[in-house]
Amino acid sequence: MPYYEFKKTDIFRNVLKTHPANKFLIYSGSVYYNNRIESSGAFTGAPAIGAIQGVSLYELNVDRNADQTGLIYPFVTKDGTLSAFKTISTTSFNSDFGYGDTITGSYPLSASLTREYITDSTRRHIHALKNTLNFYKPMSSHYDYNSSLGNKQTQDISLVSIPSIFYGSSIEKGTVKLSYYITGSLVAELTDLYKNGELIQTAPVGSNGSGSVAGVVLYNEGFILLTGSWEIEDDTSIQRDYIDDPTNKKKSAWLYWGTTMNDGFSADGTGTPASSASYSLDFSGTMHTPVLTMLAHAKMGQLNYSNNPTFLQYNQTGAIYAATSSVQYAENSGILIKNTISSSFKHYREPGFNRQTFITKVGVYDEDKNLIAIASVATPIKKYEDNEYTFKLKLDI
Fold it and tell me: Closest by alpha carbon to 249, among 239, 237, 236, 234?
């Protein structure tokens, strides 16, 4: 089998920039990602954990029943290498596990949107974003941690967290849209209209709060801070159980957008429950995928021999295999190659001989001749001695 080295002009490195669209629908305690529907499995009778609400990382334990088939899980043995999971603290690793003990984790792991409704003085997550918010002040004064527009250390805030697996390196500016529905009808909508992080109420036109800023979005960090407290329903007398407390109902406002979205609140209040409200979030991410392009050449007069035994004429006389000894390696120069050229005419004599092979795969090897990748062609490529081909291989890294 011949080996050919890639030349400098055969390798190209570039970065593919894409903007995948994401859509989340939140209703009655459930999150639906990109309009996925539930599909039961053969063993569990339910979809994989995280498959509907977001992304099931690694796609492990899909359609597995914990009671019948058992769930797979990661594990590591404590030994001299001191290897452990990042979720295990150094103190726990030293005190809770002895050498030879097995440290286990759990699958599946999933990622989805989360919401945190913050009203008290314990707001560590908001305080942790103080420097980041102030950094973006040149984009908009609404980022200011403490200004005449509001003090984020004391005002009520709804913090929406978006895992980076959905948006990549950053959320694309101008693509964020939050919609607020009551009994299926759109009552308000926010967009980052000017691509400066301000979430402005743009619909319905002329509605209460139209044109006002209800919050800001941190594009690179994946956070949305909602502070809009004005009433957004036409009938301002209606109150709903947004905070899981029937005795303390609230009028619909952007502060309560996303209620029941992994925030610990249920949707089964009494009176006029928050289950009549639903929400959606649309945005596009920014993904940078490094792409390695390699050109593999099948040059004229090369790659026209095969090690497949059928390449040689069947039942011919003479030694097919090379004669080897401690002093020589000799191949039989009289070995005949099977003529695989077909004739276009029926019952015609055997056509003229022409050496041909069929290329089906291209292997990529490292400097130690270890096979690291295989590229397969859809249809075998017929190769004669007087023609040549170039195979373009692309690898996302």
Answer: 239
Instruction: Give the integer Cα–Cα distance in Å for 350 and 340.
Output: 10
Residue 37: per-residue pLDDT: 72
Sign of the Cα pseudo-torsion (42, 46, 49, 51, in order): positive
- Report yes or no: 298 and 356 within 8 Å, Cβ to Cβ: no
pLDDT at 47 over 70: no
d(CA 144, CA 153): 11
Task: Examine the fold and report which residue of 111, 139, 155 is the final residue of a domain before the chain moves on.
Answer: 111
As a whole number of angstroms, the distance between CA 169 and CA 164 comes to 7
Query: pLDDT, tens digit, for every residue of 18-44?
Result: 999 999 999 888 888 998 776 666 665
In a domain, 275, yes or no: yes
Does the pLDDT at position 223 exceed 80?
yes
Q: How far apart are CA 133 and CA 117, in angstroms?
A: 18
Query: How many other CB atoms are there within 10 angstroms of residue 368's CB atom?
Result: 6
The total of structural domains in the chain comes to 3
Q: Is the pLDDT of residue 314 over 90?
A: no
Separation in Å, CA 197 to CA 16, 61, 138, 172, 180: 25, 39, 11, 11, 19
| Token output for 13 | 């490195």
Give, in order, the Cα–Cα distances in Å from 316 to each of 11, 64, 328, 338.
Answer: 44, 57, 24, 10
In this structure, the answer to whether residues 241 and 169 fall within a common structural domain is yes
Structural domain for 60, as ranges: 37-111
Q: Are residues 65 and 153 in the same domain?
A: no
| H or E element in which residue 357 lies | strand 356-365
344 exposure class (CB count in 10 Å sphere: 0-12, 13-18, 19+):
exposed
What's the CA gap between 279 and 187, in Å, rounded?
Answer: 10
